[in-house]
């Protein structure tokens, strides 16, 4: 059979590599894909948000199943469109994708159904927001309602910074229309855990937990990025926490979505903070996280397509989803300057990679035999190990065998997790 995967980053490369393990799959078309994944997929160059282009491609080619990975096409109704064409899909429809596309929706859902999250207020009037900030607890977290490429969250350490954040979102429209409505919420503290889950709307199967490293520089310094590396499992996610999450967060969320007539089928990502009052939801994503997927999927033992089809067909309860009892570490190699301006077109050299190591390419294009950088996050190197320490060590050894001009990466991916393990 032939598959179509919408998206073109490291997450999509990890999805495609995993799907490839199923020998019934002949061709995987990536829309757009990127030059670093041409061994695994036919990269079409059709943009992930070009719904007309996607529709035309799906109409002209024999496509038996589609995976829609990024948030934008999900929020735009790509799954609705393909389903209407008779192509079964993995991913929520537009109505369910709103759980990520609108932070106000997500917050109100949690409030209505008693799902633990930070206290919050919603504003669509700037003056009211500024008035509220005069007495609001500081630090305050200011969030644009809509999708903002993962950048619509500002943690304001002072009242002035909070006011600036509100003005930049509501007056200067730093995130476009996404900031016409904002959420101001309570600042929570505690370790963060990402849990991706498979759900068909009835059953929810959490995948192995993971830890992202969002800041650009070592020691969690520097600007927020899409994610500079990950480890799995996350040592803060103990069995006790996992049980609480299932009962207090995961099941209540999918039941709430169903009750709201927005049944969620796909990968629901829970961004959690383990506070001293228990686990709370920081954010929902309606999709696989990146680079979380780059550590989670290499640990998946069950055939991914089988799980995905069970999700689509509403029979996830019949499937046993298993993960290897190992550890994974992903180190992202980025272009110097990222997440600000950076140069492109640098030649990437990938040497010998050791066993149990995967290179997931996010931002590269092919020119003849050469692979050239074309994005901020260029690639992720994931290694597995029997211990977290072994996975980290192996990932960094392999990173040493990859080079491009002005490459940079964090040297401390997994360090916090190792320290947590020791305590
Ligand atoms: P998001 O884009 O929603 O993932 O938010 C980016 C990051 O901001 C999260 O990973 C957290 O580290 C942080 N964050 C978001 N909301 C809060 C909050 N209420 N309290 C503390 N940190 C937060
Ligand atoms: N790594 C965080 C995300 O995918 O949103």
What does this entry look like structurally?
This protein is of the alpha+beta class and 423 residues long. 30% of the residues lie in helices and 28% in strands. The protein contains 13 helices and 25 strands. It has helices at 10-19, 51-60, 71-76, 78-84, 94-101, 103-113, 126-133, 159-170, 239-259, 293-296, 304-312, 388-399, 415-422, and strands at residues 2-7, 27-32, 42-43, 65-68, 89-90, 120-123, 140-144, 153-156, 182-186, 192-199, 204-206, 211-212, 215-217, 221-224, 229-232, 266-275, 278-285, 327-335, 349-350, 357-361, 364-367, 370-373, 377-385, 402-403, 407-408. The strands form seven sheets. Strands 12, 15, 18, 20, 23 and 25 form a six-stranded antiparallel β-sheet that branches. Helix 7 packs antiparallel against helix 8. Adenosine monophosphate (AMP) is lined by residues 118, 141, 150, 153, 155, 185-188, 192, 214, 271, 282-283.
Quick synopsis:
This protein is α+β, with helices and mostly antiparallel strands and 423 residues long. It is built from 13 helices and 25 strands.
The small molecules bound here are: adenosine monophosphate, glycine
Q: What is the mean pLDDT?
A: 96
Note the main sheet: 6 strands, antiparallel
- The tally of beta strands, per DSSP, is 25
Low-confidence stretches: none
Report the end-to-end length measured between terminal Cα atoms.
48 Å
Roughly what fraction of the amino acids lie in strands? 25-35%
> What class, by secondary structure content?
alpha+beta
Spatial shape: globular
Helix fraction, binned, reads 25-40%
Computed CA radius of gyration, to the nearest angstrom: 21 Å
